[in-house]
Amino acid sequence: MFTKPSRSRAKIGIVGGGQLAQMMVDAAGPLGVDCAVLDRAGDESVARSGGAGSVRTVERFDVPTLMAFASEVDVITFDHEPVDLGAVIEAAERGATLRPGPAALAFSDKAHQRSALAANSLPVPPFAVASDPDAVDLFGSEHGWPIVVKAPIGGYDGRGVTVAADLGTAMDELGRFGGRAVLEPLLPLRAELSVVTVRTIDGEVVAYPPVDTRQDQGICHEVTAPSSLPDPILRVAATIAERVAEVVGSVGVLAVELFVVGDEVFVNEVAPRPHNSGHLTIEACATSQFENHLRAVLGWPLGSTSLVVPAAAMVNVVGPDSGQPTLTAGPGITIHDYEKSPRPGRKLGHVTAVAEDVTTAIASARSALR
Amino acid sequence: MFTKPSRSRAKIGIVGGGQLAQMMVDAAGPLGVDCAVLDRAGDESVARSGGAGSVRTVERFDVPTLMAFASEVDVITFDHEPVDLGAVIEAAERGATLRPGPAALAFSDKAHQRSALAANSLPVPPFAVASDPDAVDLFGSEHGWPIVVKAPIGGYDGRGVTVAADLGTAMDELGRFGGRAVLEPLLPLRAELSVVTVRTIDGEVVAYPPVDTRQDQGICHEVTAPSSLPDPILRVAATIAERVAEVVGSVGVLAVELFVVGDEVFVNEVAPRPHNSGHLTIEACATSQFENHLRAVLGWPLGSTSLVVPAAAMVNVVGPDSGQPTLTAGPGITIHDYEKSPRPGRKLGHVTAVAEDVTTAIASARSALR
User: Cα A217 vs. chain centroid, distance in angstroms?
Assistant: First the structure.
């Protein structure tokens, strides 16, 4: 399948100790790759020492920490999306091997995403990057209220996204987001898709089959594969996603979340890292997103992204208002427990079910949560 | 004083059309330098075409816009602080001359500021960069509630800064800031200082005399020079500020806002651009911050930063709850009207007064607003 370099075991440094890091570590073992995970004090670490990974806690992910880490590993990659971009820029300038690098990590900024994708003729929803009430008012008048107001940086799992019914509400949110926001109309969505792509250091891009995603209060809640949308739309989605990966110039996994409005496909958001919508690739595809991410950042050939089951579904396990969720295993069901302390709204794990068809798979995954 | 390059007139491109851009244009005329200002649609432009400057409106400050602009001018500089860092990284990689460059502009992120300055042994207040309730709770327990919660990106004029009395409030704010914030204790401030520095492309750093600043609801409201603090503190402040300019590696003006607690001086915030606290340099110093910023980004020798008056005071003119403020001129008073439409809390202009002593200067500046 691929040739391992004729040296001692490869070693990947992962900045951030969340569940994405742990799933990378889980994928590293069978590849014969070692991982070192840097966790940050105060963050709840999920990654565990043992197996292919060791975990160390640092005060912060600053330049000296990144440089010291770079000297210990072959390549540094990221579990955390909202990393300190300034530190990454400087570490890269000083010669640290960071994949993805600063230019791709800058795509964590939703304002940059939208502007850069639009500048490269990729279809994005109507939007404005606004810091001024006049601009917000103009946008609301042009596209109609309510509008969606998004924090450019750091928003995830529904945080940093608000539907604002009027200028006053929009400006309150904008102030809370630090004075700058991405605005978009409230689109009449037919569906939401996600395409997980992987890009090598040579610029080769492969895509996983598009999956259907359903959000609940801004959290990606359910994912099903294969998508139920017509083939022409899926072909457009895959083409758009591959082009996005080229524009971002990332190395490793890049998830492209898409809006479907009528027969049109728009890029909603881009995440330059393994993504929740790709978790079902562990059970459903020849090569998981985590294995392919590691292969890509190491400069190894990628594995096949094909579906190897007829259908799969993933349901996130989110902290209930009180107590701990109970999960029930069953045929075709895999429970991924992140071993986090439960808190309302927090992602505590996910359940993947594989089955003969999507309807059965999603029913099966949901049944594990009951 | 300096030798102009033996070529046609130098031309500086300014991204952003606010009052800082206009004051740069005002400084460019006497230097024989042309300016082109890019304003963004929807932002209220303050910069005017005419004199040394022409103003053009673009849809957004993205990579194609920056590259086209770079081909028209000798160097691009910035009025806007929260620029699209991703676009700046890519434009710099493609060869655009940007001063300051991406590594310095990344210091607009308060989380990066604090981490990078701490890593370089500069005195900063106790802080944490937190995205997790456990980390916020730990910080509050260690330092005592209430704590200050700051948006890492984009906060200015009091937006993006909240005093949180408890964990619930802090997490609400953190969520509104997009899930990540800088935490610091509510410090017992003796005073606040600002030191405006200028760094050349060769790394030479000069500082203006430290000034006293007084905030009102997070807006820098009054500035007086010279500072009333004892000389040993001012020497420490100046040394710290010069070291900050080296660490940031900026080109042009970099303002360093400092907290004084007892006899200790801490870096509060850094702004890699001309700054409100340096506006009085127009009237009070041999060379204004705007002229020195232009000189620095052009690679010209800097002008003297010395005070040329015994004392000066600056008062911001902020939009009242209703109507338009009335300003009265007088001896030693200069009124700077940014010609913005009034809105409550918006900076509409500033008044500078020079006098024999600080007490007279501040009384004189305030009297213009009555």
Answer: 17
ipTM: 0.75
Number of domains comprising chain B: 3
Whether residue B116 contacts residue B104, with contact meaning beta carbons closer than 8 Å, is answered with no
Three-state DSSP at B146 gives coil
Structural domain includes residue A2 = no
Q: Are residues A269 and A344 in the same domain?
A: yes
What does the alpha-carbon distance between residue A169 and residue B321 come to, in Å, rounded to a whole number? 18
Which residues in chain A are contacts of B68 at CB distance < 8 A?
none
pTM of the predicted model as reported, rounded to 2 decimal places: 0.85
> Quick check: is A1 in a domain?
no
- Is the same domain home to A272 and A360? yes
Counted across chains A and B, CB pairs separated by less than 8 A come out at 178
In B, minimum Cα distance to A106 occurs at B86
At A343, which CATH number? 3.30.470.20
Which residues of chain A does B42 touch, with a Cβ-Cβ cutoff of 8 Å? 128, 130, 132, 134-135, 138-139
Length of chain B: 370
CA distance B154 to B223: 23
**Which tokens is B135 given?**
């980390």
Tens digits of per-residue pLDDT, B230-265?
999 999 999 999 999 999 999 999 999 999 999 999
Residue A196 sits in the same domain as residue A181: no
Q: Is residue A112 part of a domain?
A: no
Angle B17-B22-B25 (CA atoms, 0-180°, nearest 5)? 115
Task: Based on the fold, state whether residues B221 and B337 are members of the same structural domain.
Answer: yes
Write out the H or E segment, with its range, that includes residue B176. Answer: helix B167-176
Do A51 and A19 lie in one domain? The reply is: yes
Q: Is it true that the peptide bond before A226 is cis, omega within 30 degrees of 0? A: yes
Alpha helices in chain A (DSSP H): 19-31, 63-72, 85-93, 102-105, 110-119, 133-143, 167-176, 231-248, 281-284, 289-298, 358-369
Mean pLDDT, residues B147-161: 76
Q: Is the same domain home to A202 and A175?
A: no
CB contact under 8 A, B86 and A178: no
Q: Minimal Cα–Cα distance from A282 to chain B, Å?
A: 27
Contact between B91 and B70 (Cβ < 8 Å): yes
- pLDDT tens digits for range B58-99: 988 899 999 999 999 999 999 976 678 899 999 999 999 999
Residue of A nearest to B151 (CA): A178
Judge residue B133's burial from the number of C-beta atoms within 10 Å of its C-beta, 0-12 exposed, 13-18 middle, 19 or more buried. Answer: middle
3-class SS of residue B269: strand
For B171, the domain range is: 126-185
